[in-house]
Amino acid sequence: MNPANHSQVTAFVLLGLSQVWGLRVLFFIVFSAVYLMTITGNLFIVIIVTSDTRLHTTMYFLLGNLSFLDFSYCSITAPRMLVDLLSGNPTISFGACLTQLFFFHFIGGIKIFLLTVMAYDRYVAISQPLRYPLIMNRTVCGLFMVASWVGGFIHSIVQVALTIQLPFCGPNKLDNFYCDVPQLIKLACTDTFVLEILMVSNNGLVTLMCFLVLLGSYTALLVMLRSHSQEGRSKALSTCASHIAVVTLIFVPCIYIYARPFRTFPMDKLVSVLYTMVTPMLNPAIYTLRNKDVIIAIKKLWGRKKDFIAHPNH
C-alpha cells in the first residue's frame, strides 16, 4: 500500500532530546561515547563466543545472539540521533520513518522472545541437568531462534500495517529522537482510540505478560536452588541474578512506554534513552564479561594476539 495515497505529510521533524544548542552538543559527546562502548562491547562478545570452542554451548550461543541484537537495536536509532543532535533541521521522510519503526520493533520483538528462550534454557539446566544436553540440543536451539525471528517479524509488521493506513495531514513535529508508534499515532488526522487499544494490546500487554512469565520462571528457579549444593547454588544464583537484572532493564521501560494510553509524560524521553541506548551498553557487562569462562576466553584470545605480534611469520 502506498503511504502517499493516505498522507499529505511527506516528512516529519524530529524534535529530539532538546532544542538548546549547548545541551545538544553535550548529549552528542555523551551518547557518542555510549554508542561506541555499546558496539565495541557487544561485537567483542560475538567475536569471543564464536572464536573459542569452549563457548560453543547453548547458553553462550544465546548470549552471543543477544549481543548481536543489542548492537543492531542500538544502531537503528543512535547514529541518526547523533547526526540530528548537530543538525539544524532534523527531518525524516515518511518512508524512512516507517522503515525505522519496522526494524526497531523487529529487533525489539526478537529480543523479548530470545530472553524468554534464555529463561527456559536456565530452567532446564537447573531443573534437569542430566537431560539438559538432550533437551536443549543444537536443533532445538536453532528452532527457538527461528521462532524468535518470525515472532519479531510478525509483531513488527503489524505495527507498520496499522500505522501506514493512518492519514497524516499535519502537524508533522514528532516529539522524539526516533520514529515510534505512540508519537506517530498522535499526529494522525483521525480518531485513533480503537487503534491505540490494538497497539497497547499488541505491545504493552504482550510485553507485560512475558515479563510476568519470566519473573515467575526465575522465582521458581530460585526456590528450586534451595536443594542444590552450596557451590552449585552460588553459580546458578549468579547467572539468574544477571538474567533478572537484564530482563528488568529491558521490560520495565517497555511496559512504561507501551502498556498505557499514548500520552506524553515528562519521563518519556529519559525512559526511551534508557532502553535504546543505555541497556544495550550494560548487557555485555551484566551478562557476559563478568563470567569466568568468558574471562578465560578473553585471556586466551589476548595471548594469541600477543604471540602473533611477536611472531608474525609463524
UniProtKB/TrEMBL annotation:
Spell out the family assignment given in the record's similarity comment.
Answer: Belongs to the G-protein coupled receptor 1 family.
Q: Gene Ontology terms, cellular component aspect?
A: plasma membrane
- A GO MF label: olfactory receptor activity
Please identify the protein, giving its name as recorded. Olfactory receptor 4D5
Q: Which Pfam families match?
A: 7tm_4
Cross-referenced PROSITE patterns, in alphabetical order? G_PROTEIN_RECEP_F1_2 (PS50262)
What does the UniProt entry say about where the protein is found? Answer: Cell membrane
G-protein coupled receptors family 1 profile domain location is 41-287
**Domain of life, per the record?**
Eukaryota
Residue ranges annotated as transmembrane are 25-48, 60-82, 102-120, 140-164, 205-225, 237-258
Alphabetical keyword list:
Cell membrane, G-protein coupled receptor, Membrane, Olfaction, Receptor, Sensory transduction, Transducer, Transmembrane, Transmembrane helix
Q: Topology versus the membrane, per the UniProt entry?
A: Multi-pass membrane protein
